Amino acid sequence: MIEVKNIYKKYGDTYVLNDVSVKFEQGKCNLVIGRSGSGKTVLLKSIVGLVEIDEGEIWYDRHRFSHLGIKERQLIRKEMGMLFQGAALFDSLTVEENVMFPLTMLTSQSHGEKVERVNFCLERVRVSRANRLYPAELSGGMKKRVAIARAIALNPKYLFCDEPTSGLDPQTATVIDNLIQDLTFEFNMTTIVNSHDMNSVLEIGDRVVYIHRGCKCWEGNKEEVLNTDNQDLNNFVFATNMAKKIKS
């Protein structure tokens, strides 16, 4: 479990995060939604330590991450998996080398052990016989699958996904959503997904947090999100669905 307690982040005179408190539960897909500029990206960066909060606390199980030093944070970061927007694969590395990268950086495994783990992860995301391919040779959906394989290479306790379905067609996006959900349950991870895709929310949103102007304005599950009396959330859901219809 990850718990955020009364955190604040200010840039200049503007609060980007204003007294945000939320628990992200283990073994569930926790989705953070909101408009561009709402603060959800800063929230995710704060949780992983890429942004330092001004006030409040961030806990990883029994560890108060926000108050740890660099070395202590590194131990927890070894238990994190990251799926970046756009996959963020290294263009000059093969699929195998991309997935192996965190193993090389953070473990002392032999080459044979690393190859075995890479193959397991690629098979788990249903990308077989692609070890020697380069990212330029992959479709958008395959790139996301390889990025997920890299994210789970270290068998993480915590998985962070930033707009994992961005740029994908609806069918492929659903496949990626379901894969993230399956892996979350299978490995009992605490998964946090930043998304503006309401299809993702309705597909895998075990817990949903709506951020509006730096504040947590609503929290519930995928069944409740369509029946809320929160006007800001209703406006966001309606605007998102209308934009998808116009694009299609």
Structure characterization notes:
- The strands form two sheets. Strands 6-7-8-3-9-10 form a six-stranded mixed beta sheet, sandwiched between helices. Strands 2-1-4-5 form a four-stranded antiparallel beta sheet, with helices on one face.
- It is 39% helix and 25% strand.
- By secondary structure, the protein is of the alpha/beta class.
- It has helices at 40-48, 70-77, 95-106, 111-124, 140-151, 170-187, 198-204, 231-247; strands spanning 2-11, 14-24, 29-33, 55-60, 63-64, 80-83, 158-162, 190-195, 207-212, 215-220.
- It folds into two domains: 22-51 and 67-79 and 157-248, Rossmann fold (3-Layer(aba) Sandwich); 83-155, no CATH class.
- The protein has eight helices and ten strands.
- The model has no long low-confidence stretch (mean pLDDT 90).
What are the SSEs and their pairings?
Layout: E1 2-11, E2 14-24, E3 29-33, H1 40-48, E4 55-60, E5 63-64, H2 70-77, E6 80-83, H3 95-106, H4 111-124, H5 140-151, E7 158-162, H6 170-187, E8 190-195, H7 198-204, E9 207-212, E10 215-220, H8 231-247
Parallel strand pairs: 3-8, 3-9, 6-7, 7-8
Antiparallel strand pairs: 1-2, 1-4, 4-5, 9-10
Quick synopsis:
This protein has helices spanning 40-48, 70-77, 95-106, 111-124, 140-151, 170-187, 198-204, 231-247, and strands spanning 2-11, 14-24, 29-33, 55-60, 63-64, 80-83, 158-162, 190-195, 207-212, 215-220. It has 248 residues and is an alpha/beta fold. The longest helix has 18 residues, at 170-187.
